[in-house]
Design goal:
367 residues; five-stranded antiparallel sheet; 8% helix; four-stranded antiparallel sheet; WD40_repeat_dom_sf; Methylamine Dehydrogenase, Chain H; mainly beta
């Protein structure tokens, strides 16, 4: 057990390292700590590699000034966090390092939060990973290694559902479909494959011509008409490609961010797609119209964006780069109607109708 925002004092650290990876944590229930952000930080001469857990104020779009807790990951560079995947229930997350993956569990006790490192030999022994992904239902967890090894585990038993040592030359990107049936993975050589998770086998290789490279990938999150989004490099063109997941055929292309793309992500409600470039720009696209709704220039000042993740409850994105760490950006896109706003609007219409009805009959003479 390590750290809390209550009785335990945060150890005295030196100058902490830059953020190497980050993720949102949405916890069930209310309270001030419902929405959290976890930062993975590199080590420095005066501080080991660490994890920081912060409370997030969605209204002010800011992190708390001090972490709720801070946990040392180890003593050497290979212990530095490289990627973080949070379970959908918000009570645990997996952190990848050069040595393998480590599992952490969040436990609330009274008014404090504790972080417990869990023993998980199947994860700790996988070696360096490029990609981590939980399924939407939380029942599956996948890792894609630098060595091209794909593993899909049942969660939380960690029973292997698929174990393919030669899935790719080396992983580039990976995602699991909304219904948890399919996994898409891309390789550093430009190829892409679809896997049928329950059958534990490859389903199809996505077609491409000799001059095409498929790089980033993610499934849509709109359950009504699911798609697969991929970024495609074709000569000097940088395209965003949409595929129909019923037959894995291409529906169309769009030039959205006219520069090399380093990462993509979809909001949890499926309405927006984010693309991060290799020179630090980011754009957010309305999925229904496939038009850019928000363009953020140089959010990472010329450094490739390594990850983008939408906030679970607000139109905010969390992005990271190896040079500049993490940035939180509030998006200039239309906000969703909340339930109380809809009821307030209906009540306003009712009151306006009642006033109009009263006024009409007050000034009308009945014969």
């Amino acid at each position: 057990m390590a750290g809390s925002d209550g009785g335990n004092e945060t150890p005295a650290w030196g100058v902490v390292g830059k953020v190497t990876c980050a993720a949102w944590i949405r916890r069930s229930g209310g309270g001030a700590n419902r929405l959290l952000v976890v930062y993975g930080r590199a080590g420095t001469a005066s501080s080991p590699p660490i994890l920081d857990l912060f409370a997030f104020d969605a209204r002010a779009c800011t992190l708390a000034s001090e972490p709720l807790l801070r946990v040392a990951m180890g003593e050497d560079e290979d212990d530095a966090p490289r990627a973080i995947a949070v379970h959908p229930d918000g009570d645990e997350f997996v952190c990848a390092t050069a040595k393998g993956c480590r599992l952490f569990k969040l436990v609330s006790e009274d008014f404090s939060i504790n972080l417990i490192a869990m023993d998980s030999p199947p994860l700790q022994s996988v070696g360096p990973q490029r990609c981590l992904a939980f399924s939407t239902d939380g029942a599956k967890f996948a890792t894609g290694g630098e060595d091209g090894h794909l593993r899909i585990f049942h969660w939380p038993s960690l029973r292997l559902l698929l174990d393919e040592p030669k899935a790719h030359k080396s992983f580039r990107d990976m995602d699991i479909s909304l219904d948890s049936l399919f996994l898409v993975s891309t390789s550093t050589d430009g190829s892409a494959r679809i896997w049928k998770i329950d059958e534990g086998a490859p389903l199809v290789n996505l077609t491409r011509s000799a001059d095409e490279k498929i790089e980033c990938c993610c499934f849509s999150r709109n359950g009504k008409k699911p798609f697969l989004f991929c970024t495609l490099v074709k000569g000097n063109d940088i395209l965003t490609m949409v595929l129909d997941i019923t037959n894995w055929k291409r529906i169309g292309y769009k030039r959205l961010l006219r520069k090399p793309i380093s990462t993509i992500s979809v909001s949890l409600d499926g309405k927006y797609l984010a693309l991060g470039s290799r020179d630090g720009d980011c754009c957010v696209v309305d999925v229904q119209s496939m038009q850019v709704s928000h363009l953020i220039k140089k959010v990472h000042l010329g450094s490739p964006i390594s990850s983008i993740e939408f906030c679970p409850i607000e139109r905010i994105v969390l992005s990271t780069s190896h040079q500049w760490g993490a940035e939180i950006t509030k998006l200039d896109v239309p906000a969703d109607w909340r339930v109380w706003q809809i009821w307030l609007l209906l009540l306003s219409f009712f009151l306006a109708s009642a006033v109009a009805f009263y006024t009409f009959f007050k000034h009308t003479t009945l014969l």
